[in-house]
């Protein structure tokens, strides 16, 4: 049975408060009494529990910078809810979060925003960013300087990031293709609309989707691929042009954001329910379009859990004096159709 603070207090002949102060290195105890309590605790085989370690660490506040390309992309609001939920849970232990959002996928904009987080005193980072050589080199430099980085929502190739917290994008793409193969055996003329070709997760979805169509021997032709840049207006215009130029398109695969703009173009052309339309994530507008039958199904990835779980490993990492290296945390792939959206 584990030795308790109360048992140490009885043997040492002091109060539980005195034992607590000694074991958590708080002032207010005479040196000789502190030494006596430490010896008794050692003789009894006392091992400080995790809560004790956390309480001792309260003297060392930890500021975590969270960076997202979230401006104009409502998906990231749930990731931010997860960040804030973790901040509230760990606030008693000195954890604070500074959030930075930008619009789009310009590497210079991303690096500038992350630099500002570091300059503000952030000792660790959670980032959802582009997977380019320049970004990887910059983040590895920060990691080398002692700032741990968690990749949240989309991973980073060949970096020394601490861990990845997010969905399995290949599985998500495979799931979309698997469901589609159950719905049709006709020749598919595909329009694929991704968020950015610089985002690893978006590319992995397309790879998983295409691979599974081939494995399922679903006949398809890729008519066009373009980037929505997570911008509804841009997505609307590009979709309108693609569908007008290629009336043979009978399936639209929406890999990331821009859903409202894409579906507005489909509806304006009177093509709702005449095309297979597949999407990802469970933002409000997407769910409504599934209810209306414009989108056949959408595939979620638990964004709030991603935000929450990306703070946890950093907390544990610092509690262990950087000895405990966390594993990746993969959120669930969640299939949503009209009948289960509630």
TrEMBL record:
<dbReference type="InterPro" id="IPR025997">
    <property type="entry name" value="SBP_2_dom"/>
</dbReference>
<dbReference type="GO" id="GO:0003700">
    <property type="term" value="F:DNA-binding transcription factor activity"/>
</dbReference>
<dbReference type="Pfam" id="PF13407">
    <property type="entry name" value="Peripla_BP_4"/>
</dbReference>
<dbReference type="InterPro" id="IPR000843">
    <property type="entry name" value="HTH_LacI"/>
</dbReference>
<protein>
    <submittedName>
        <fullName>LacI family DNA-binding transcriptional regulator</fullName>
    </submittedName>
</protein>
<keyword id="KW-0238">DNA-binding</keyword>
<dbReference type="InterPro" id="IPR028082">
    <property type="entry name" value="Peripla_BP_I"/>
</dbReference>
<feature type="domain" description="HTH lacI-type">
    <location>
        <begin position="3"/>
        <end position="57"/>
    </location>
</feature>
<dbReference type="InterPro" id="IPR010982">
    <property type="entry name" value="Lambda_DNA-bd_dom_sf"/>
</dbReference>
<dbReference type="Pfam" id="PF00356">
    <property type="entry name" value="LacI"/>
</dbReference>
<keyword id="KW-0804">Transcription</keyword>
<keyword id="KW-0805">Transcription regulation</keyword>
<dbReference type="GO" id="GO:0000976">
    <property type="term" value="F:transcription cis-regulatory region binding"/>
</dbReference>
